[in-house]
Amino acid sequence: MASKTPPLFFTLSLICLLPLAFFYLHSTTISPNSQNTLVAPKNSIKVYISPLPRSLNYGLLEKYWALNSDTRIGSEVDNEIRKTISPKLSEKFLPYPENPIIKQYSAEYWILGDLLAAEELKSESFAKRVLDSSEADVIFVPFFATLSAELQLVINKSVFRKRVEENEDYARQRMVVDLVKKTDAWKKSGGRDHVFVITDPVAMWHVKDEIAPAILLVVDFGGWYRIDSKTSNDSSSDLTIHHTQVSLLKDVIVPYTYLLPRLHISENRKRNTLLYFKGAKHRHRGGLVREKLWDLLVNEPGVIIEEGFPNATGKEQSIKGMRNSEFCLHPAGDTPTSCRLFDAIQSLCIPVIVSDNIELPFEGTVDYSDFSVFVSVSDALRTNWLVSHLRSYSGEQKDRFRDYMARVQPIFRYDNDYLGGVGPTSRDGAVNQIWRKVNEKVPMIREAITRERRKPPGVPVPVRCHCI
After folding, report:
1. CA of 406: how far to CAs of 59, 267, 343, 346, 414, in Å?
2. Structure confidence by residue, pLDDT tens digits, 314-355
3. Separation between Cα atoms, residue 144 and residue 53, nearest integer Å
4. Where is the signal peptide (predicted)?
5. At what angle do helices 145-155 and 107-116 cross, to 10 degrees?
6. For the whole model, what pTM was predicted?
């Protein structure tokens, strides 16, 4: 009769073998010579540029600079530039407007400029251009939607919201959608893998429903959610947001283009003001909180709250104010965010974010709580609460905030230092960060396209909330 293996011996043998098994499995999975594509990091995204006429992108720059003048606030600098370039408009190398109202939304210009750069210069660009749409991960639609909208507001603001012949912006929006929808690439995916840059809240206003399936690059979701009170008889239905157009699952939050110069940490000096805010007091929608905050804080010692406008004088005042302040107030305006947040980061002024529904760019890569103070609207509106809370931060804590802020300053930079914006982006800059975020969406988008194709003809696709 065979002898039994002692239970203790068997147990000890297993314990000894487990480390060897783990070592074997682990080494075969992460070996540098492994051909396993699942563990090989992807370091680029393949992008096809949808063919649109020049009149819908760089042609709009020619049209803008050919204007005799722009009478809106902040346009003085562009009126001076016109004197130097109007007589010799070029098909290349036209700058994006410096008027801060427009410049803050210039992502469209820098993203296209990087895609059009010579491939031999693009070793650090995350997006690689392909010339066949079937090889692409995503399709980029090169429409300067912000510039189109702003041109209309300069030329004939009265028809901006109307779908009439005199509204050239509407005609351009219609042209973009009609041209793109005729392509095989759109028909193949239903537009889900197409990328639109829509940073200005009023850009593409007339066709938002039609491009909703696409990947939208937006500065926030303000103005994109639509409330449908008919979906429920519940008395709280007016507070329910039903997703019809935007979602963190498919869209990408991108930064505004900052307007103030970068302050390096080595240049930082003693700051004498506790809290600073410069901007318009009266705003719509969520900006009503700003008016209440203004009245609470305007007479507080150590706090500077002042009306300001985006012109040359206002810019110089903002530079001085932000660089001399420990904290910079960031309340919601017409939309949850503004370029003021990114100006504060470049000025090493710790952002105080009072906006309950804010979405921020590159979260997951950047943890804003490492350099920002988040305050609920209800707390901010309590008498004396906000100032007392900010005074409770120690000098060491504030220095730690600024040190981290200095490290993330470069990722919000769009400018590539190339004439006309056509050139490769900086490795850690905003354009590469945007494409990395888009790349994260690609597997989910491919799954949605595949799921859509296998549906029998006539079967509707249910509208669901994909908010997270």
Report:
1. 37, 11, 13, 8, 16
2. 899 999 999 999 999 998 776 778 899 999 999 999 999 998
3. 12
4. 1-27
5. 130
6. 0.85
